[in-house]
Structure formats: structure tokens, C-alpha cells
Amino acid sequence: MLLIDGEGLPLGVDTESANTAEVNLIERLVDRRTTQRQPQRLIYDKAGDSDPLRERLAARGIELICPHRRNRKRRPTQDGRKLRRYKRRYKVERTIAWLQSFRRLVTRYEYHAHLFKGFVQLACLFTTLQRF
Q1: Could you tell me the sign of the dihedral formed by the alpha carbons of 97, 102, 103, 107, in that order?
Q2: What's the pLDDT at 123?
Q3: Rounded Cα gap, residues 41 and 36, in angstroms
Q4: pLDDT confidence of residue 125
Q5: What is the tens place of the pLDDT at every residue in 1-57?
Q6: CA separation for the pair 86, 109 (Å, rounded)
Q7: What gap in Å lies between CA 120 and CA 100, rounded to an integer?
Q8: Does 81 or 27 have the greater pLDDT score?
Q9: pTM, whole model, 2 decimals?
Q10: Integer angstrom CA distances of residue 121 from 19, 117, 118, 127
């Protein structure tokens, strides 16, 4: 999982096994950011559509912007005006493409997760330094 700023620079990264739900990992990713300032908005994909997550993030002062799932049982919680910001999600995909220029991340050669996370953090550092 990757947390970026408005320009696409990595602010936080977290690795976890594939069998853990993304909804449970979002708050931990926000806690592991490198900046002191807490984000005002969090743009996420449909996997983050969870009312308890929205409430927990709202208690922290973070607005979650993500489209609703098609099979949602409850009433929608946001209108189309806030979803206009979702168009900027391409910046996340662009940053992931920058990180995939490092071959070691595309094909995971490391057996241990802490080594892979170290290489991801190193790739984020190189990506940030290239932008300046």
C-alpha cells in the first residue's frame, strides 16, 4: 500500500500479506506517513467503501473519497461533487508505475518481508529524489 501527496511523491508505504483486507490496513498506512501533518482527504478505490472506516477516519479529521460499491446495501454517503476529486487518482497509478521501474520490486526476489519492505522504501526514496 502506498500513501502519496498531491504531486505523486511517496509519503508512506506498507507491505502486508495478500490475505488481509485493505480496509483494515488503511489507518495503519496513514499512521506510518513520513510527515507530521495529517492528510485532509484520502482518495481510495472501491475497496475502501466501508461505513465504519469512514466514521473512524472522520473522527481523525480525514475525509474518505471513494466510489461506492455496486452491491452497497445502505444509502450512499457522498454525492457526486466530492467524487470529482477521484479523477486525480491517476497520480497514484503514476507513482506505482515509477516504482515498478525497479525490477526488484516487480519480481519479488526476497524471501523475507522485511527485506522487500526495505527495497520498497529505498525505491520511494530514489523516486522522491528524482523529482527534485
Answers
A1: negative
A2: 93
A3: 15
A4: 92
A5: 888 888 889 988 888 888 888 888 888 888 888 888 888 888 888 877 788 888 899
A6: 34
A7: 10
A8: 27
A9: 0.78
A10: 22, 6, 5, 10
Alpha-carbon distance of 30 to 13, in angstroms, equals 9
Half-sphere exposure of 116 (CA within 13 A, CB side): 14
- The residues with which 2 forms a beta bridge, in sequence order, are 13
**Exposure letters 86-114 (e unless 16+ CB within 10 A, then b):** eeeeeebeebeebbeeeeebeeeeeeeee
Give CA–CA dist 37/73, Å, rounded.
35
Q: How far apart are the C-alpha atoms of 57 and 53, rounded to whole Å? A: 6
Q: Say if residues 24 and 34 touch (Cβ distance below 8 Å).
A: no
Amino acid code (one letter) for 2: L
- Spatial CA neighbour of 127 closest among 10, 14, 2: 10
Identify the H or E element spanning 65: strand 63-65
Q: Match 523529482 to its residue by C-alpha cell.
A: 131
